[in-house]
Automatic annotation (TrEMBL):
Any one cellular-component term (Gene Ontology): cytosol
Keyword Lipid biosynthesis recorded: no
Enzyme Commission number, as recorded: 4.3.3.7
Keyword Thylakoid found: no
Species assigned in the record: Marinomonas pollencensis
Name listed for the protein in its UniProt record: 4-hydroxy-tetrahydrodipicolinate synthase
Single annotated GO MF: 4-hydroxy-tetrahydrodipicolinate synthase activity
Single GO biological process annotation from the record: diaminopimelate biosynthetic process
Enzyme class (EC, first level): lyase
HAMAP family according to UniProt: DapA
Binding of pyruvate, residues: 45, 203
Swiss-Prot/TrEMBL site (Part of a proton relay during catalysis) positions: 44, 107
Length: 293
């Protein structure tokens, strides 16, 4: 089972909007050196919705090659068309991904039965461990706990990233799932709390800029050391909040640029962080001890 701090990796881009392969390699090395336990390539934070299918698969292949087995790589392969998700998932398997992360279909708003059939079809088509991803605040599609429990009996479906931020709902989900089915937090502000309740890790945006603290908080939480986990998490709490002052990954890409990890470049229809928010994000980075004034 994949556990711990799993960074939802940004996709670095050059000033003209092309994928920056050199910076991508550098980011992988940075995270491994800082203690990140696993890398999620081309999820929401990796701008999956604006990469071409070729770019999408190329980024996954490059991350896998650079990681070279040192930590698990989870490939974001979700789509709002089932056939597209199958194609992306097959490409990730062929590239050597350890698992795939599949977001609920966005915009077309399937029923719960549609969600069940969608994920079941992908799992039956591609033999690779698959992690569901529920983030209703972005997709306008909320997969109910009952549907997750149904899907937990499907071969290859091994976990879910719960980005609802609802601790009571997350706890109920953990308690209702069979042993061995992993729940991961997808909400940085509540991740420690969910891990202390039994979640197996945190697929984290904040880890892009504070990987060591996020990984340490996860280690403490998974060991059941609530005091140390919350103390570590408190040091980066301002980041959890201010990295979402505009739509993710706008703020985190700006923050990464301040650290020299990438250019401050993002693809339309997203735009670079508004100047009005620069100071808030900068101060959160200073408070977290990752940037000096």
């Amino acid at each position: 089972m994949i556990t711990g701090s799993l960074v939802a990796l940004i996709t670095p881009m050059t000033t003209n909007g092309a994928v920056d392969s050199k910076k991508l390699d550098d980011l992988v090395e940075f995270h491994i050196s800082q203690g990140t336990h696993g890398i999620v390539a081309v999820g929401t934070t990796g701008e999956s919705s604006t990469l071409t299918p070729e770019e999408h698969s190329n980024v996954i292949r490059q991350v896998i090659k650079t990681v070279n087995g040192r930590v698990p790589v989870i490939a974001g392969t979700g789509a709002n068309a089932t056939h597209e998700a199958i194609d992306l998932t097959q490409a990730a398997k062929d590239a050597g991904a350890d698992a795939c992360l599949l977001v609920t279909p966005y915009y077309n708003k399937p029923t719960q039965e549609g969600l069940y059939q969608h994920f079941k079809a992908i799992a039956e088509a591609v033999d690779i461990p698959q992690i569901l991803y529920n983030v209703p605040g972005r997709t306008a599609c909320d997969m109910q706990n009952e549907t997750v429990v149904r899907l937990a009996s499907v071969n290859n479906i091994v976990g879910i990233k719960d980005a609802t931020g609802n601790i009571e709902r997350g706890e109920a989900l953990i308690q209702s799932l069979p042993e061995g089915f992993a729940v991961y937090s997808g909400d940085d502000p509540t991740a420690v709390a969910l891990m202390l309740l039994g979640a197996k890790g945190n697929i984290s945006v904040t880890a892009n800029v504070a990987p060591k603290a996020v990984s340490q908080a996860a280690e403490f939480a998974l060991a059941g050391d609530a005091e140390a986990a919350y103390a570590t998490d408190q040091s980066i709490a301002p980041l959890h909040m201010n990295l979402f002052v505009e739509s993710n990954p706008i703020p985190v890409k700006w923050a990464c640029a301040q650290l020299g990890l990438c250019e401050n470049s993002i693809r339309l229809p997203l735009t670079v962080l508004s100047e009005a928010h620069h100071e808030a994000v900068k101060q959160a980075m200073v408070q977290a001890g990752i940037l000096s004034l």
